[in-house]
Structure prediction request, 135 residues.
Amino acid sequence: GRLAEFAGHGWDTSQMIDPQDPRAYRSAILDWAEPGKDGHAEMLDLYKRLLRLRAAEPDLRAAPLDTVRIEFDEDARWVVIHRGAFRVAVNLADRPQPVPAATGEVVLATGPATPGDDGLILGSQAAAIVRTVIG
Prediction:
């Protein structure tokens, strides 16, 4: 039933794992030994920080989608998601670059994120959540 549901959205289900296949379940079980391995502890910490921020900030939780606005530049490879008093700025490029975003406090970042004249300068393949300056 789930694959039919996905197909109904126009998705190519030939590339998807069948959610009813027991192998899908087994492959999704968390390996709690991983946080001790290279890179995994950092990823777990990032998820924990994101969850704490989301719990603390109503603007980062579910909201009517008509209140969320997205800007992007496909050529420059950046995206900015506007959610209430927050901006989620993402640099998908392989080089640091300014990403137009409201000025404010960087509350979480996955790499270098510094204010610049043309917006938030994000490191390559980095993202930041910015609390905008209000008032």
